[in-house]
């Protein structure tokens, strides 16, 4: 057993945990990040994230990585289109360079954070299997290989299925009633021109009740789609996702009536469609202060995808580090200040999503504007998963 009582011990090297480690480092506070995956390249990091000027970019600034961040931005990819399922354009907005939510690849953003940390900060291949309180703010973390570490300050940045969360709360994520199926089309401008045109230069949304298509244009004409279906888990369990052709055929059946250039995001996809069931913690999830431990990001406030999760995780990391730097020698005061602000921030974000900004509300507003022949200025905020 090793004792690690002077460091901040962070579980999880996602965007939240790494932002925390980076801003701690800038403030001279040592940290160790334990990550379950064996290496930075162990898992594909997913596609594009739009990083917002009101949360994610504030964290990038706190991490002093704005120049590196700007170099990652995909120019022109803030464009947005909203289409009817029959292909009619309801809303269209070009990227004129003045938007506040540039798109970057998640993996590249994670890499600039990793590159900004002192060597050895992240311990790869350390999957936490259990945690227990030892009293006096100390906790024992046990890893899958049986090794342990004792912490002075423990931070759960370990995502939806956090192993640290039970120290603070008995909440567990519940199925939201919706899953997404991820698909890819490659070199779409030459191989799938009608679909490439429908998606446009950035993001495309098309939906009707219970069914959604989102697609992002990535580099080299790759179209990355999230096909959303509101169905119970059992509905998806009945589909064999190890049989790519059968799974594609079953999902495509649900979009048969859609314009061919849109349903092609399913029927023409390459590789196996990937199922991602969506889970969320209760909206009001919070906890009483427990000495020596806290949570950030999805571990604290996993929500149905609303385009804010990674942004909030990064801001949590930056704000927690700042709180610790602002309260030298008084970790509990720092954790209290961080948690109170984080609970308010989360409630405001989730509240905004529930207050007239759902996709259904957006579509209703666009339909209304179209019927009235008024210019469209439906307050489009991030709506993709
Ligand atoms: C389909 C989909 C699309 C999304 N799109 C967007 C988007 O466009 N914009 C946006 O802002 N958000 C988006 N989100 C949400 C976003 O991905 C999350 O909110 C964000 O990744 C949370 O960051 P995090 O650092 O808290 O957790 P994570 O990114 O989940 O990182 C947690 C880390 O902890 C590690 N870990 C987990 N368990 C253990 C363990 N037991 N031991 C050690 N390590 C462990 C994991 O390997 C991982 O590296 C999307 C989510 C989904 C599902």
From TrEMBL:
Its cofactor is FAD. Belongs to the aromatic-ring hydroxylase family. TetX subfamily. Keywords: Cytoplasm, FAD, Flavoprotein, Monooxygenase, NADP, Nucleotide-binding, Oxidoreductase. It is found in: Cytoplasm. FAD binds at residues 50, 106, 298. Consists of an N-terminal FAD-binding domain with a Rossman fold and a C-terminal substrate-binding domain. The keyword Cytoplasm applies. Its main location: cytoplasm. It holds the Pfam family FAD_binding_3. An FAD-requiring monooxygenase active on some tetracycline antibiotic derivatives, which leads to their inactivation. Hydroxylates carbon 11a of tetracycline and some analogs. The keyword DNA-binding does not apply. It catalyses: a tetracycline + NADPH + O2 + H(+) = an 11a-hydroxytetracycline + NADP(+) + H2O. GO terms for molecular function: monooxygenase activity. It comes from Streptomyces endophyticus. NADPH binds at residue 43. It comes from the Bacteria. Monomer. Residues 6-329 form the FAD-binding domain. The lineage of its organism: Bacteria, Bacillati, Actinomycetota, Actinomycetes, Kitasatosporales. Its EC number is 1.14.13.-. It is an enzyme of class 1 (oxidoreductase). This is Flavin-dependent monooxygenase.
């Amino acid at each position: 057993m090793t004792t690690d009582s002077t460091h901040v011990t962070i579980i999880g090297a996602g965007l939240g945990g790494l932002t925390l480690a980076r801003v701690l480092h800038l403030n001279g506070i040592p940290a160790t990040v334990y990550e379950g995956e064996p290496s930075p390249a162990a898992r594909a990091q997913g596609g594009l994230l739009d990083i917002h000027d009101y949360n994610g970019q504030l964290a990038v600034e706190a991490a002093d990585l704005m120049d590196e961040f700007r170099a990652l931005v995909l120019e022109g990819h803030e464009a947005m289109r909203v289409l009817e399922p029959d292909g009619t354009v309801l809303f269209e907005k070009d990227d004129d360079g003045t938007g506040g939510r540039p798109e970057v690849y998640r993996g590249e953003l994670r890499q600039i954070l990793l590159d900004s940390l002192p060597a050895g900060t992240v311990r790869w291949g350390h999957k936490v299997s259990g945690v227990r309180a030892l009293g006096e703010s100390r906790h024992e973390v046990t890893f899958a290989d049986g090794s342990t570490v004792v912490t002075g300050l423990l931070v759960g940045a370990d995502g939806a299925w956090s192993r640290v969360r039970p120290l603070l709360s008995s909440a567990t994520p519940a199925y939201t009633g919706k899953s997404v199926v991820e698909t890819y089309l490659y070199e779409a401008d030459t191989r799938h021109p009608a679909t490439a045109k429908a998606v446009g230069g950035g993001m495309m949304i098309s939906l009707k009740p219970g069914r959604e298509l989102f697609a992002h244009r990535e580099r080299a004409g790759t179209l990355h789609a999230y096909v959303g279906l509101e169905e119970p888990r059992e509905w998806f369990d009945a589909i064999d996702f190890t049989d790519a052709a059968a799974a594609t055929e079953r999902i495509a059946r649900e979009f048969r009536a859609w314009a061919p250039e849109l349903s092609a995001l399913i029927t023409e996809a390459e590789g196996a469609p990937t199922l991602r069931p969506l889970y969320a913690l209760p909206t009001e999830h919070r906890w009483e202060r427990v000495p020596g431990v806290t949570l950030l990001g999805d571990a604290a406030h996993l929500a149905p995808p609303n385009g804010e999760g990674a942004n909030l995780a990064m801001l949590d990391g930056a704000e927690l580090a700042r709180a610790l730097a602002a309260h030298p020698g008084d970790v509990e005061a720092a954790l209290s200040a961080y948690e109170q602000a984080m609970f308010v921030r989360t409630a405001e974000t989730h509240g905004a999503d529930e207050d007239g900004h759902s996709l259904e509300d957006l579509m209703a507003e666009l339909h209304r504007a179209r019927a009235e022949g008024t210019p469209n200025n439906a307050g489009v905020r991030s709506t993709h998963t």
